[in-house]
Amino acid sequence: MKFLYETFVVNDEPQGIQRVTGKNNRFLALSSMLFSFSFLFNLFKYYMNMNTRFVFLSFFILLAVFAFAGCGSGKLKTVRVSGTVTLDGEAVEGATVIFSPAESGMGHPAIGKTDASGHYRLQTQLGEVDAGTTPGKYKVVINKEKLIETGKVAGMAPSGNPKMEQVFVETMPEKTAKIETTDMEAVVENKKENVFDFDLKSK
C-alpha cells in the first residue's frame, strides 16, 4: 500500500510527521469532489433565482469579453522584410540584424540572422516565422560576436592542462553594432517590397 506523509506543526514549528494511508487519501479526494459539486449546484440555483433580464445581460457581457480576448490573441499583421549584409563587399554569415522602432509605440522590434550568402529575413516575437514586422521607421543594428582566447590562463581543465581565458569580441563595425551609435535606418511600408541591403565598412 502506498503512503503519504504530512508534517505536524505546533506554534509554527514542525514537530514530526504522520503517515496517511492511501485509503484516507482517497477519502479526502472524494470529500473535495463532493464539496465542489455542492458549490456548483448552489451557484446554479442562485443564478436560476435571479432576475432573468440580469442573467441575459451577464451572458452577453461574458460573450463579448471572450470574443474580445479571442481577437487579441491573434498574430501580428506584418509585412515581409529582407535584405543582405556585406562587410567590405563580402557576405557576412551569422550576423544578427535588429530593427528597433525609432519612435516609442510605433512598430515592433524584429530580428533576423544572416545565412551563408549574407541574406536575412526579419520576424517579430508575436508574428509568424520570417514574416517581417509592422510598418514604421526603424533604427538598424547589425552585430556578430566571436569567441577568442586572450592568452591568459583561466584555470585548469579536467585533463590537467591549462584552461585559457576566452571572451566574446564584436566583429562588426562598432558604430553599427550598438543602438546608441548606429546611424542606419529603414522605413517599412505596406504594400511595398521592403528589401534593405547593408554594405558595412571595416574602416
Topology of this structure?
Blueprint: E1 3-10, E2 13-21, H1 22-49, H2 52-72, E3 81-87, E4 90-91, E5 96-101, E6 110-113, E7 119-121, E8 136-143, E9 145-156, E10 162-170, E11 185-188, E12 194-195, E13 198-200
Parallel strand pairs: 3-12, 3-13
Antiparallel strand pairs: 1-2, 3-4, 3-7, 5-6, 5-8, 8-11, 9-10
Report on the biggest sheet.
5 strands, mixed
Helix content: 10-25%
The CATH architecture term of the largest domain is Sandwich
Give the helix/strand class.
alpha+beta
Mean pLDDT across the residues is 76
Kindly provide the radius of gyration, computed on alpha-carbon positions and rounded to a whole number of angstroms.
31 Å
Q: Could you give the count of β-strands?
A: 13
* Low-pLDDT stretches: 1-23, 52-63, 65-73
The CATH topology of the largest domain corresponds to Immunoglobulin-like
Number of domains: 2
Shape: flat
Would you summarize the structure shown here?
This protein is of the alpha+beta class. The chain has helices at 22-49, 52-72, and strands at 3-10, 13-21, 81-87, 90-91, 96-101, 110-113, 119-121, 136-143, 145-156, 162-170, 185-188, 194-195, 198-200. The longest helix has 28 residues, at 22-49.
What would you say this structure looks like, in words?
It contains 2 helices and 13 strands. It is α+β, with helices and mostly antiparallel strands and 203 residues long. It folds into 2 domains: 3-72, no CATH class; 81-200, Sandwich (Immunoglobulin-like).
List keywords for this structure.
single chain, 203 residues, alpha+beta, Immunoglobulin-like, 2 domains, 5-stranded mixed beta sheet, 4-stranded antiparallel beta sheet, 2 helices, 13 strands, 38% strand, flat
